[in-house]
Amino acid sequence: MSIDGIAGASIAYSTANVLSQASLSVTKKAMDSQEQQAAQLIEQLKASVPEPPSNHKIDILV
Predict the structure, then answer these.
(1) Which of 31, 50, 58, 60 is most buried, judged by most C-beta within 10 A?
(2) Is the pTM higher than 0.85?
(3) Where are the alpha helices (DSSP H) in the chain?
(4) Is the pLDDT of residue 1 over 70?
(5) CA trace torsion 17, 21, 22, 24 (10° rounding)
(6) What's the whole-number mean pLDDT along residues 44-49?
C-alpha cells in the first residue's frame, strides 16, 4: 500500500468518525428534548386529574 493510499484511508476514517460523532450528538440532543417534553406532559396530566374530596369514605364489606 502506498503512502497516498494510507493517507487517503486515514482521512476517510477520520471523516467517517467525525460524521458518526456528530450524528450521535444530534440523536442524544433529540432524545433529551423528547425526555423533557414527556416529563412536562406527565406533569400536565397529573395536574389535570382532580384530587378526590377528603370527606368521602368507602365502606367495603367482605
Answers:
(1) 31
(2) no
(3) 3-48
(4) no
(5) 140
(6) 88
Q: What CA–CA distance (Å, rounded) separates 5 from 10?
A: 8
Residues with Cβ within 8 Å of 47's Cβ and at least 6 positions away in sequence, in order, are none
> Burial of 52 by CB count in 10 Å (0-12 exposed, 13-18 middle, 19+ buried)?
exposed
DSSP 8-state assignment for residue 56: -
Angstrom distance (rounded) from CA 18 to CA 12: 10
Q: Tell me the C-alpha to C-alpha distance, in Å, between residue 39 and each of 26, 47, 48.
A: 20, 12, 14
Q: Cα separation of 57 and 62, whole Å? A: 16
Residue with cell 433529551: 32
